[in-house]
């Protein structure tokens, strides 16, 4: 989730400035309350309170969570996602990319259409559950239940996947109101 590997200080500063240009709009992606929650999370991870998340900060955070055997490669991988020093703006940008990093709606629709050969706009909930739990990246029953909690399912047990795709890519209107 974060990253490692800093070249020279000059290159690092150059990357940071470039990164900030591309993420100057990141604050408009979130509600003020969400930004505050991210600030709190950033503060919890930035153990030495210097405004930048480093490998030692991650080690200490993992240690507080009881995970003491995190290897340096994992931490480096996380830090490399920032493509330079991870200050709060970069941290917020990483989360923005992850949260808004879903596939485009048409890509998700095309995937669902593979399970809807008749083009009805619906897939059977029970059949889809079976596929999710037994194919590729297998879902647990709990993960399927979480996914189905958002899904518009009609009384006959069919998922309206067009509406679900909209919810996945735009959010659930019920959550926002």
From TrEMBL:
InterPro entries: EF-hand-dom_pair (IPR011992), EF_Hand_1_Ca_BS (IPR018247), EF_hand_dom (IPR002048), Myosin_RLC (IPR050403)
Keywords: Calcium, Metal-binding, Repeat
PROSITE patterns, A to Z: EF_HAND_1 (PS00018), EF_HAND_2 (PS50222)
Superkingdom in the source lineage: Eukaryota
Signal peptide: none
Gene Ontology MF term list: calcium ion binding
UniProt-listed Pfam families: EF-hand_5 (PF13202), EF-hand_7 (PF13499)
Presence of the UniProt keyword Glycoprotein in the record: no
Span list, region Disordered: 1-20
Domain EF-hand: 33-68, 103-138
Protein name: Myosin light chain 7
The encoding gene: myl7
